[in-house]
Design brief:
heterodimer, A: 115 residues, 6-stranded mixed sheet, 4-stranded antiparallel sheet, B: 115 residues
Chain lengths: 115, 115
Amino acid sequence: AQKITQTQPGMFVQEKEAVTLDCTYDTSDQSYGLFWYKQPSSGEMIFLIYQGSYDEQNATEGRYSLNFQKARKSANLVISASQLGDSAMYFCAMREGPAGNQFYFGTGTSLTVIP
Amino acid sequence: NAGVMQNPRHLVRRRGQEARLRCSPMKGHSHVYWYRQLPEEGLKFMVYLQKENIIDESGMPKERFSAEFPKEGPSILRIQQVVRGDSAAYFCASSPQQGSTDTQYFGPGTRLTVL
């Protein structure tokens, strides 16, 4: 089974609107971390936001928030007030266990912000 | 505070040649990870190293690929006798600690093209 599933290959959003990018995960560990990264066309991977499995509050970082629903095993990224510079690939990732070595990445969602 | 450095950014090799990719982690980070991203895919874990030790190489192909992180100097990912299927972006990441709550910070990647 896939550890991270991103079911939206491509998304479009109007500038200044909010958009939700979906991510579901699969793990039997109690301790894990969930991460979102942005990959613009230039190719680098930019860390956006982190949610720990024991965190009771949803993580927020500026215009980014993570809608964490533990029972559903989902960790959706919400971008508010979209900007043209938000157009990029977005990857959801998970790190398992108290000493997980690797990140498991989803296949990504391509977001295009329309002026 | 410099981020993760990778060089070269772009590397072109002919089939059968060797490719050497370098990664300098962020200052204060002693954990290094290598990932490979094939076109249109997410990142796949290859290997996790600490200084002078390979901790987890479960994602590394058994032949032609090797990695090291010497006491002095950058981490090196070495691909011998490259084939066209090795063409990909190779990302290095580093973290200060190892655990599910620790973010991995990525370098800009090395784009390897095998002719």
